[in-house]
Each structure stands twice: as C-alpha cells, then as structure tokens.
Amino acid sequence: MVDSQRHLDWLAMAKKDFHAAQVLFEHNIDNSLVCFHCQQAIEKYLKGYLLKNSKLLCEGHGLIKLCKMCEQFNEHFQIYLKDVAFINEYYIETRYPADEPLIIPDEDTRECIAITEKILHFIDEII
Predict the structure, then answer these.
(1) Which of 34, 70, 72, 103 is spaced 20 to 30 Å from 119 by Cα?
(2) Where in the sequence is the domain holding 84, given as residue range(s)?
C-alpha cells in the first residue's frame, strides 16, 4: 500500500514532462524528445490514476497495458487505446541510438502533444 496522496506526486511529475514537451516543440528542438516526454507524461498520469484507485504502484512502461488496467476503474479509458498505441511507438525508439535515425514529422509530433493534452485533461476530470 502507498500513501493515498502519493498519486499527486506522479501527476506533478507528468505535468513537468508535458511542459518540457511543449517547450521543446515551441523552440523546434527535437521532435523525438517531444514525443518521448509526451509518452512519459501519459505513463506517469496513468500510473498516478492507478495509484489513486488501487493504492498500488504499477510497474512497466507500456501505455496500452496501463490504459487497460485503468479500464478496470473507468470503462472510458477504452477510447484512448488507439491514442496510447500511437504514442507508445516512441518510447524505446526515442531513448536509444539507432542504426537508422528516427525522423518524426511535425504533424506526428503535434498529434502526440494533442493526445497527451486530451488524456491528461480526461484524467484530471475524473480523479
């Protein structure tokens, strides 16, 4: 069991990740970093939501799995599965050097930002 208010720490850290993503995008720094921070923000928000509802800290980084776990407490998470699958693509590929550089178009990066904003807002509304 974890302290009942600990979920707020996860949400606060997630908001920092999302803010970092927005600043990086506004300054045209690196789309892969923007997408990585979006993935991190959603992951931490989902874990915060799960912590609030289950009182247990969940392991793992897969957004699809975390989103499905959240469905146990609110069936509306199902509508975000396609969105988290899109963002989930950027977790590993943005963290490590690759043989082929990952080029993420601005359009996909904007989509990551929009999805992140939508999911964070949804969770804020229900938490």
Answers:
(1) 103
(2) 7-126
